[in-house]
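Sanity check

After download, print the first record. It should look like this:
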Amino acid sequence: MGGKTADADPRGTFLQVSTALESREAAEKLAREIVEAKLSAGAQIIGPVTSAFWHLGEFGTGEEWQLLLKTHSDRFEDLQAYLTEHHPWTNPEIVAVPIVAGSDAYLSWVRKTVEQGEES
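Expected structure tokens:
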């Protein structure tokens, strides 16, 4: 078959990391910084989306822009630290889900791109 699965991939685990921001401009700025730092091979901005949530003990809804980032598990801690430091919210969503399968060429591109950003 033409794709890798997580169990069969000797390169490790690939992740899709998501967060949300209050505006398209904020999402674009953060995406640009993260991709330029090679913490993620690429980013997708989706929105606006309507979110429902609890905040400070009260139920609320709001418009947000979702930021999806593709990276390798080796880079997750650095990406999480960057998001924690540079995200405008005190407690931003930072969640990662494994990419359980993908094309060989795409996963190789992700791995190669984020490896170039690692310290030697």
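If your output differs, re-run the checksum step. Summary of this record's structure: The beta strands are 3-5, 14-21, 42-55, 58-72, 95-99, 101-103.
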